[in-house]
Amino acid sequence: xxxxxxxxxxxxxxxxxxxxxxxxxxxxxPIHPNAGRLLHLFAMSRPQGRIIEFGTSxxxxxxxLAAAIGSDEAxxxxxxxxxxxxxxxRANFEEAGLIDRIDxxxxxxxxxxxxLSDGIAxxxxxxxxxxxxxxxxxxxxxxxxxxxxxxxxxxxxxDLCADYVEYVRGATDRYVSVGLPVDDGLEVSVYLR
Length: 193
Fold this sequence. Notes:
- By secondary structure, the protein is α/β, with parallel strands linked by helices.
- It folds into two domains: 1-30, no CATH class; 31-191, Rossmann fold (3-Layer(aba) Sandwich).
- Helix content is 40%, strand content 22%.
- The chain has eight helices and seven strands; from the N terminus they run αααβαβαβαβαβαββ.
- The protein has helices at 2-12, 17-24, 33-45, 60-66, 83-96, 109-112, 132-139, 158-170, and strands at residues 50-54, 76-80, 102-106, 120-125, 143-152, 175-180, 186-191.
- The chain has a seven-stranded mixed β-sheet, sandwiched between helices.
- The longest helix has 14 residues, at 83-96.
- The radius of gyration is 16 Å and the shape is globular.
- The protein starts with a helix and ends with a strand.
- The model has no long low-confidence stretch (mean pLDDT 90).
């Protein structure tokens, strides 16, 4: 589906993040069940702290994360900018019976995540790929030691993820990182500080 969007982007002359986001507004981009189970496992085995998701879409990955936490834990914070996807996500959360374990924030992630004070134990990056590195760097001061960071679509869109992957693999004093050929590619990193 994504390669079709990239072809359409070229045909329309879309080149900016905003133009590309408009093309993806109605796209249903579900996470593969194997990637979802891996996220669930990471959520269950993370150190003490919050779970944050960048890029809710229709909320399927959010459900894998929320199902891994207890009812007494802080809810998973997920953020989505595309308004057309919010109602689908909420409906999926309600149908799964997990809406009380999810804090859905609507808008730009740099704004919706700006006032976090709790330590981040798991960060799932699945929004706009060009924002992975700037968002990670913005949230880095909140990462707890041993935090798990997972970036999706690294094999599907390697050019858009290249700066991010180079950063987490190159910052060996801060991260241990490996690419996994699961679904569209996952870069899994552990924060060392």
